[in-house]
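Saturday, quiet lab. Running sequence design on the structure tokens for the scaffold JK sent over.
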């Protein structure tokens, strides 16, 4: 009986179902349409008339996310930091959405729209312990730096942190005199020693030399140790501290990248105080560097600085091939013999496909022109001896005729510094740091150090090439119109333009992205709606490819 009754009910309802079928389909369509329209709410037409459906307020969305972030941060730091990063991107996406009209606003290639909401912060925390007195420290730490100037700078920065971990007194580090560069400059020839010591006085004791009473008892040479790369603080406490307590003086050799990337916030901020404040170039270097900056500024209101690492040693180390035939293979192969632990050279083109090869000067020029920099842009090229000489540089000069180097701007003033590669590198560092846009053709030590500093100092525009994607485009360059090539280059460079959230915290080398030392200011939408960028000449334009998702 129950089954017959159900059958009669279903037959009786069939007509009603058929009559309402169209209405149900409409409701179903509206339901799905409503689900899709968080960002773009449609006009919902119903029987009661046409009215605009309300959107979920973005302030509520961000508030809910931040509330959830606060709850999660009670239990774990890493998850909270990741969610915070995503919430920042959500806020910035809303900013671009409002400014550009459905995400089609211009993007300024000379500066970041959102950099003004961040600032460098490396102050000591309220519970930061004062440094130990020299006489009460656990001993004297000697450091043998390694590599070029910026690689040594990285090592010295970490050495200060290690001295803090060990409660040790740091002796002013010795620079590397024996590497490829053969520069016999001392620390005092490049950096202001007295400033270095006084600035760090609230962090660690620093002395210029080991006291005589220890020198007389010191072994010749002092006891040396080589710490594994990326060692954790606990390794120093377990392995180095006992030796330091026993011998009073220990030297750590080849000290570059010997400390872990991920440290506590106080130690990370100490890294920033060293790298961005304690290092001050000597007066002669500082004055000449800023003289070159002023010469560039007098010629143009703004300029690009390109750190062009295309020296023979760099190309040999990379194992890349640039089409120079047997001559190139032989010359770079001979240089590779200086290193005993390099991997075998891969087949021609394989390294470039993987994005492991420095861009050529010509490729750097093509990338910049494709991004929108005009040929009247002034560029400063910081480099050593370019492999291939003027013939290699000529395509870049043709793309950017306003081409300058330190040798062109101050040939006479440079004469005293010419025998010293580290001092020349310091001059280039100053001019690159002061530039409006900094561009690198590889991800070497100077590129990382300057990228981190420019983030810390206000996220000045810093362009790193997405070498893996760009290499494929350069190979296809002659097979596509310029506007298509330009569009693809812009697409490839998403996330490589020095925006505040290009990289998730903890994903990059800390010296390249000092996330613990970058703080946020309040984000005011209404204030920035009144400051919309209108200079299309220095923007990507209104191509829908570059909406608010451009840096996502």
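Result came back. Writing it out in full:
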């Amino acid at each position: 009986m129950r089954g017959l009754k159900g059958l009669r009910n279903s037959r009786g309802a069939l007509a009603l179902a058929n009559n309402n079928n169209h209405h149900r389909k409409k409701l179903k369509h509206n339901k799905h349409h409503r689900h899709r329209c968080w960002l773009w709410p449609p006009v919902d037409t119903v029987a009661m008339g046409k009215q605009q459906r309300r959107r979920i307020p973005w302030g509520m969305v961000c508030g809910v996310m931040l509330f959830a972030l606060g709850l999660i941060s009670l239990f774990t730091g890493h998850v909270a930091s990741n969610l915070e990063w995503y919430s920042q991107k959500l806020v910035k996406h809303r900013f671009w959405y409002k400014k550009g009209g459905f995400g089609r606003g211009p993007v300024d290639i000379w500066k970041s729209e959102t950099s003004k909401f961040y600032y460098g912060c490396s102050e000591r925390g309220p519970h930061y312990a004062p440094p130990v007195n020299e006489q009460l420290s656990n001993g004297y730490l000697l450091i043998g730096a390694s590599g070029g100037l910026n690689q040594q700078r990285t090592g010295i920065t970490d050495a200060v942190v290690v001295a803090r971990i060990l409660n040790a007194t740091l002796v002013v580090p010795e620079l590397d005199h024996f590497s490829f560069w053969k520069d016999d400059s001392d620390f005092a020839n490049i950096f202001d020693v007295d400033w270095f010591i006084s600035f760090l006085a609230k962090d660690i004791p620093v002395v210029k030399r080991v006291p005589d009473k220890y020198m007389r008892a010191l072994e010749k040479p002092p006891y040396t140790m080589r710490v594994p790369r990326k060692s954790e603080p606990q390794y120093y406490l377990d392995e180095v501290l006992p030796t330091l307590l026993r011998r009073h003086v220990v030297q750590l050799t080849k000290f570059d990248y010997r400390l872990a990337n991920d440290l506590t916030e106080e130690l990370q901020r100490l890294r920033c105080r060293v790298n961005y404040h304690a290092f001050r170039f000597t007066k002669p270097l500082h004055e000449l560097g800023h003289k070159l900056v002023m010469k560039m500024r007098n010629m143009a209101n703004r300029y690009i600085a390109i750190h062009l690492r295309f020296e023979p040693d760099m190309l040999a180390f990379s194992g890349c091939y640039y089409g120079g035939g047997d001559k190139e293979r032989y010359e770079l192969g001979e240089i590779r013999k200086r290193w005993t632990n390099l991997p075998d050279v891969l087949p021609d083109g394989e390294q470039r496909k993987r994005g492991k090869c420095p861009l050529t000067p010509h490729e750097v020029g093509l990338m910049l022109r494709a991004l929108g920099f005009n040929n009247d842009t002034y560029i400063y090229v910081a480099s050593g001896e370019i492999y291939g000489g003027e013939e290699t540089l000529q395509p870049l000069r043709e793309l950017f005729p306003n081409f300058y180097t330190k040798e062109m701007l101050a040939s006479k003033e440079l004469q005293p510094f010419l025998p010293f590669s580290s001092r020349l590198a310091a001059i280039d560092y100053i001019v690159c740091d002061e530039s409006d846009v900094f561009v690198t053709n590889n991800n070497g030590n100077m590129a990382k150090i300057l990228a981190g500093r420019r983030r810390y100092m206000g996220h000045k525009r810093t362009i790193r090439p997405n070498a893996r994607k760009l290499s494929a485009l350069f190979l296809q360059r002659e097979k596509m119109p310029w506007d298509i090539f330009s569009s693809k280059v812009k697409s490839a460079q998403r996330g490589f333009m020095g925006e505040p959230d290009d990289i998730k915290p903890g994903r990059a080398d800390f010296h390249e992205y000092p996330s613990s030392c970058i703080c946020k200011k309040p984000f005011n939408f209404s204030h920035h709606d009144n400051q919309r960028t209108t200079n299309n000449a220095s923007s990507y334009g209104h191509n829908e490819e570059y909406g608010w998702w451009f840096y996502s």
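Notes for JK: The domain at 134-278 is CATH 3.40.50.11340 (Rossmann fold). The longest helix spans residues 2-36. Ask whether to fix the surface positions before the next round.
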